[in-house]
Amino acid sequence: MDFLEIIKVIILGVVEGITEWLPISSTGHMILVDKYLSLNVSSAFKEMFFVVIQLGAIFAVVILYFNTLLPFSFKNGFSIKKETMSMWYKIVVACIPAGVVGILFDDKINALFYNYQTVAIMLIVFGVFFILIENYNKGNQPKIKAISEITYKTALIIGLFQLIAAVFPGTSRSGATILGALLIGVSRTVAAEFTFFLAVPVMLGASFLKLLKFGLSFTGSEIIILIIGMLVAFIISILAIKFLMKYIKKHDFKVFGWYRIALGIIVILYFGIGTVLS
Question: What's the structural domain count of the chain?
Answer without folding.
Answer: 1
